[in-house]
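Appendix B, Record 12. Input sequence as logged:
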Amino acid sequence: MRFFLKLQLIGIWCINEWMRSGSPSDVRIVELGPGRGTLMDDVLRAFSKLKMRNVMSVHLVEVSPTLSEIQMRKLADPLEECLTSSNENWYQRCKSIHGPEVSWYKELSDVPKGFSFYVAHEFFDALPVHIFQKKNQVWHEMLIDVDDSIDAEHHLRFVLSFASTAASKLLLHKELENDCETVEISPQTGIIVENITKRIQEDGGFALIADYGYSGEKGLTFRAFRRHQLHHPLCEPGTADLTADVNFSYFKRIIDDRVTTLGPISQNTFLQNMGITVRLQMLLKNASPDVQESLISGYKMLTEPQQMGEKFKFFAFMQHRDEYIPAGFTPL
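Logged structural output:
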């Protein structure tokens, strides 16, 4: 419920940009890391109100068998047969409760090309990063070593490489050597952003990225959370969620000027531009007291600066179009 207002508005954003693009008759909604399927459920619900069942299809990039099953239970029409395949690019397919067909893939490269909306909500911050630190004007990669000292707390420790590593030679280019003492680089992020950029450049469409992020001004953001509390990354490995804020300046360097980029802007700015306050007031009119309390609490969490309002960012890219600015990046 806490993300309800935001997810609804992301669905409205896709509809708005589809209509402003001439309502193409064959459109794909591609989500990276669909979580529990909640966002796509809201997007499909929004599109179903326009009776678009015959013009759109849904493509989910998910590597986790457990999560894909949760997503299927959320989205699949229980009256329709769900298919599995080991010979196709997709590994799972079903008709959704909202009408359009939904397919699952292990890799973005397996998703069919064409005019598409690429949506990634809290996806890139979970991808692995290489960390480099500058010492005496020389960059060193941060590595993990065994700590066998008697008073070792975790029996593991962070150390800096003595010399250049394969990752530093491949990833640490001069344009990344800014004033920061620490740089985080995700090569997997680079591959995915490059893939989406080429697809949009060739076939049209939009990408909307929503994540904890910044524009190059930070240093070390890598951290771990366990039960929603900060947790040492080397304590009981595998029991905590690892995350690193998304460096959107890295996105821009990869994209270059091949497509138009917008943002990053704060979540509060994006949601206010999309009319979240008006939407909240409409929902409160017919809601029970308990639902009203939940909606107001979620609204504050999404928009207030000390919560997610400023920390969470929205970033978009699209084909070059003269003087065109998508919704959210300017008021509707």
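The chain has two domains: 4-128+184-227+240-318, 130-183.
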